[in-house]
Amino acid sequence: MLIASSSLGILLLSAAAATSVARQASQGYFQWGSAPIRGVNLGGWLVLEPWITPSIFEDKPDWVVDEWTYGAYWRDRRDTYSEIRTHWGSWFKQSDLQEMKRVGLNTVRIPIGYWSLIPLSTSEPYLPGAFDYLKLGVNWAQQAGLSVMIDLHGAPGSQNGFDNSGFRGPREWFWNQTNADRSISALKVLVAEFSQAGYANTVTAIGLLNEPFPVSPDQVGFLRKFLQDSYASLRAIQTQKHLVIVIDSAYQGLPAWQDFMVQGYYDGVETDCRFNNYTLVYGYNQVLQWFCNQTDYFRASDKTHWTIIGEFTPAHTDCARWLNGRCRGARWDNSLNGHRLTFPGDCKKKTGSDISRWDGDYVEHLARSFETQTYVYEQASGWIMWTWKTEEAADWSMSAGITYGWIPTPVWNKTRG
Ligand SMILES: *[C@@H]1O[C@H](CO)[C@@H](O)[C@H](O)[C@H]1NC(C)=O
Ligand SMILES: *[C@@H]1O[C@H](CO)[C@@H](O)[C@H](O)[C@H]1NC(C)=O
Ligand SMILES: *[C@@H]1O[C@H](CO)[C@@H](O)[C@H](O)[C@H]1NC(C)=O
Ligand SMILES: *[C@@H]1O[C@H](CO)[C@@H](O)[C@H](O)[C@H]1NC(C)=O
């Protein structure tokens, strides 16, 4: 999850995939392109994010801001693993996935970091072990009848510098080939496991790299080569061909990927689009209009690649505590360094777990935002909301939305026109 500006991830699947995937669909695989994807992310589970589970961070020194520093904190203490194993074993349960199915979802997206997949050097303090829980989650999805997209959310050196990549700081991933090679090694572990026939009806896609953030043409080139190299390596080792390979648009916009990995490739491209500093100042109706205005953009992209929005939120602000990083404030109330909105909003009225403190019309706006966005994204190939649950930021929680009614059951029911 991009916390800096609240992202919408979009999956692009090349049209060339249509034939082979459609044939698979008739054998019982997930019907890419024939039914909209309606999903939710299992955020804050196998990759820690301070704003999703502040309780894991708030009893630690201020320098513990991401999974790297979290590991550094625990590595030299007794009971190194007890807290994180408790978290892995409890943040999601089998009953959560059954509930996701019950409310009409068909897909879950599960983020994982490279540190859970390949050997680490002694200078990397991460605590490995999450891969076993990924397999458990996939198993629960299989039993519930949900499809799974697995997503490499953190790469060596960090591909975006956000805490949700495991490492908050400089984006060192782009600096050298060792990082790209190790990322491919991590992806190979995923593909070796999940391309086995037993997962064929469940694990439908592997995301190569979440939200890489290149800032120069050289870095874009480095990324494009990585995506092509990954594709070739992963296709070479697949025992079954049911996995769709997904790439992220990397803040370049959908048109930048229109001609990329189309000819000669079976499947996928993932991309990003976002609401940003500017849409924060939009009023409720204006932001809904802005979503609607994207319809043609998504439809156009969906003609050459299946396009889904891999992350979105109905939340209107960045108020959720630590959304922009531990101990950082929000743009909405001008408490994020150097940010100046023309109005300072009151964050207490837009987030938190006690919705009785919210502005009276905010719940209705969340309902309209969810309905509008899911409608727009279904004009392409579907959507995956960020995220299923949070400890306190109810505005970002699908399960809170269902409980309080701003998300309908079933989730695809349109109740507001
Ligand atoms: C490549 O990046 C890693 C950090 O991810 C670093 O440890 C290593 O020294 C870098 N190698 C070169 C040649 O810059
Ligand atoms: C949406 O598009 C309409 C028509 O082009 C335009 O007038 C309006 O300003 C746009 N609104 C936003 C919020 O982008
Ligand atoms: C958005 O605001 C943040 C915080 O003030 C700032 O760091 C960033 O550069 C801004 N981005 C744009 C695109 O204006
Ligand atoms: C959709 O919502 C409406 C209004 O709340 C309700 O009457 C209807 O039964 C719902 N549809 C389904 C399929 O549940």
The distinct bound ligands, ions and cofactors come out as: 2-acetamido-2-deoxy-beta-D-glucopyranose
What is the total tally of β strands?
9
Cα radius of gyration in angstroms: 20 Å
- Report how far apart the termini are: 30 Å
Report low-confidence residues grouped into runs of 5 or more: 1-10, 13-29, 270-275
Q: Helicity range of the residues?
A: 25-40%
> Shape from CA axes?
globular
Helix-strand makeup class = alpha/beta
Characterize the main sheet: 9 strands, mixed
Percent of sequence in beta strands: 5-15%
CATH overall fold name: TIM Barrel
**What is the class in the CATH system?**
Alpha Beta
Describe the fold and architecture:
The chain is globular. Helix content is 33%, strand content 13%. The longest helix is centred in the middle third of the chain and has 21 residues, at 217-237. The protein contains 12 helices and 9 strands. The protein has helices at 17-26, 67-75, 82-90, 94-102, 131-144, 177-194, 217-237, 277-280, 284-293, 295-304, 362-377, 398-404, and strands spanning 7-14, 37-41, 107-113, 147-154, 203-207, 244-246, 268-274, 305-312, 382-385. α4 packs parallel to α5. The chain has a 9-stranded mixed sheet. It starts with 6 loop residues before the first strand and ends in a 13-residue tail after the last helix. The chain has one domain (9-404): Glycosidases (TIM Barrel, Alpha-Beta Barrel). It is an alpha/beta fold. Residues 1-10, 13-29 and 270-275 have low confidence and may be disordered. Bound molecules: 2-acetamido-2-deoxy-beta-D-glucopyranose (NAG) (4 copies). The site of one 2-acetamido-2-deoxy-beta-D-glucopyranose has 4 residues, from α9. Residues 83-253 form the Glycoside hydrolase family domain. This is Glucan 1,3-beta-glucosidase.
